[in-house]
């Protein structure tokens, strides 16, 4: 889809300075942009790129001083970063404007399909599945029996949603995601083997959730594993059975959350963090990358780091000690030699 600089200006409610008829094909980095691209400058330290960029149009602050060397049209706005994000969404929406059911997909006769939906080739839609209006099911997606998908949700190629799971409105599920696979539940037997515990629950994903590629969310043993509204999960995250993740929490790649743990709302969890099962994490908690959380965090809005985690400021103090350990060892060795010499 193509847009003119004038139409993009109107979309952003900005002020155009320059040629309004320039055709823009796509957004681009300011260093690489060409005459058919749109880019932006939000940070003053990147303003020098305005002299050399070939971008057809730049989104800038209202008070931006255009250099004489600049060839780009300008769209002046209050917040260039937010405006460019709107442009990215505009072009992304155009890229996903698909509808209809492609050949070689399977859709059960009992499925309930909303208006303007898209189901790609080789997708499987099981018995009693419900898909809301304007949702997109890309090729190779599996939706098991009784799955519910809300309106305006996108499920990208190759994602799998097991039976009885529910996905809300305006969610984005990326390729390779598995929702509703069995939780890791086994009973040790007398002969040292394991007997599987049936995982009879489901996964409930509320509205406006985004789940990154190859993330797995296990179904509950009983009840539901719950991902509350606004949660953002990165790629390659493991969420175990009966976990609950609170509203607007964001978790970075390769984090692992063990069974029955409850994470509060507005939390930030760094990459490769590990959280044990059956604990609670308070609202507003920030956990650093590669941290290990072995017990409940009950104080809200605090930062934690390390394995096992300690409060962020205390952790920084311990790192200072770690850096000086070699020097401390030398000093202790010297003191020991002096003391031996006096004996």
CATH architecture of the largest domain: 3 Solenoid
Give the count of helical stretches.
Answer: 4
Helix content: 10-25%
Q: How is the largest sheet built, in terms of strand order?
A: 8-11-14-17-20-25-28-31-34-37-39-40
Q: Strand pairing plus helix content: what structural class?
A: alpha/beta
Name the beta content range.
Answer: 25-35%
- What is the CATH domain class of the largest domain? Mainly Beta
Question: At the third CATH level, what is the topology name of the largest domain?
Answer: UDP N-Acetylglucosamine Acyltransferase, domain 1
What is the CA-atom radius of gyration, in angstroms? 26 Å
Rounded to the nearest angstrom, the distance between the terminal CA atoms is 87 Å
Could you outline the blueprint of secondary structure elements for this entry?
Layout: E1 3-4, H1 5-12, E2 15-17, E3 23-24, E4 26-27, E5 37-40, E6 57-61, E7 73-77, H2 80-95, E8 100-101, E9 106-107, E10 112-113, E11 118-119, E12 124-125, E13 130-131, E14 136-137, E15 142-143, E16 148-149, E17 154-155, E18 160-161, E19 166-167, E20 172-173, E21 178-181, E22 186-188, E23 194-196, E24 202-205, E25 210-211, E26 216-218, E27 224-227, E28 232-233, E29 238-239, E30 244-245, E31 250-251, E32 256-257, E33 262-263, E34 268-269, E35 274-275, E36 280-281, E37 286-287, E38 292-293, E39 303-305, E40 310-311, H3 312-323, H4 325-342
Parallel strand pairs: 4-5, 5-6, 6-7, 8-11, 9-12, 10-13, 11-14, 12-15, 13-16, 14-17, 15-18, 16-19, 17-20, 18-21, 19-24, 20-25, 21-26, 24-27, 25-28, 26-29, 27-30, 28-31, 29-32, 30-33, 31-34, 32-35, 33-36, 34-37, 35-38, 37-39
Antiparallel strand pairs: 1-3, 2-7, 22-23, 39-40
